[in-house]
Amino acid sequence: MRFDEFATIFEGYREAQQEFAQGTDADAVKKMINAYRSLVDRNQVQGPERNIDHWRKQGWENFSKFVQSKSQDRSSTQVKRNKGIKPQQITLRDDDSWLIVIPLDKDTSCFYGRGTSWCTTKSQDRQFEMFFYDSSIVLIYCIKKSTGGMWAIAYDEDDDAVELFDQNNNELSKNDFQSQTLLLPEMLIRKAFAARNKNTISTARLYWKAAKDKLSKMDFGQLSPEQKPEIEKLLLYVKDPYLMIQYAQKAIRGRWPPLEPMFVRNALYAYAYAKNVIHGRWPQAEPAIAIQPEYAYYYATDVIKGRFPAAEPVIATNQFWAQEYAQDVIHGPWPEAGIN
After folding, report:
1. Residue 212: how many CB atoms within 10 A of its CB?
2. What is the pTM of this model?
3. Angle at Cα 68 formed by Cα 67 and Cα 73, nearest 5°?
4. CA–CA separation, 250 vs 258, rounded Å?
């Protein structure tokens, strides 16, 4: 694409954002524009609908409805990746006003919760697995179609406890949640645990645990080429970091690109992957490693086998790891950390 073409497209987005913001909340417009650009980048929009000027003529209401509708569709890559994986979501409501879903796997949680600060929507963390599979917590995501606003309900079945959050992960009282959404959390929870839905939730948990158990018992070094596609699909579904690294080590005997987006922003996973799979530095992951004193120290000793300058300001703030770093990496005094 030539620079002048890029500039014209950029100007079109900016003008559309200004026009749409005249009749609604500017932050909601910005979020919807960004969602639309993401859809275009992933080729989920075709023909004249790829042109933002088309939507400037259609107006904000038609544009926002289109983006919300398209955003509910998974990209072809996601569909192919999850082909054969049974549960994905329970839809409690889908009308002109709201999309309300219960995610039944991590990809679905990340997909519908994108743009929020919820820990259960971050591919590099294991909170979704800890809450939904390992505990008894069911998550309900409420997406307001007209604005893109999002709220979450976390219900603990064992303790009959409810927590409510806005999209910035601020905990809300029941009154605040209801005033912001006009939704009744107890009614949504009751609907979530209707007999059919409760059975679907149970099946999702059993399926994930069975898949993890199957993978845990496997010797990845003995897999035939015919077995690998199915095993890789299960690994990307279960998303257990230890099993993924084992597979990369024993079955692939080298880097496995599909897991790297999940590992690159997690200091522990990135360190383990660099040490055990790459057997050397992983520059793309170093920013995440450098801000965690413990794993920065291990990365320096086990991977770099020398000083890790980018991490030293952070390591120096932690007395224990600074002492270890001075002793095992610098092999002497480290005045900048107060170690002489």
Report:
1. 19
2. 0.70
3. 95
4. 16
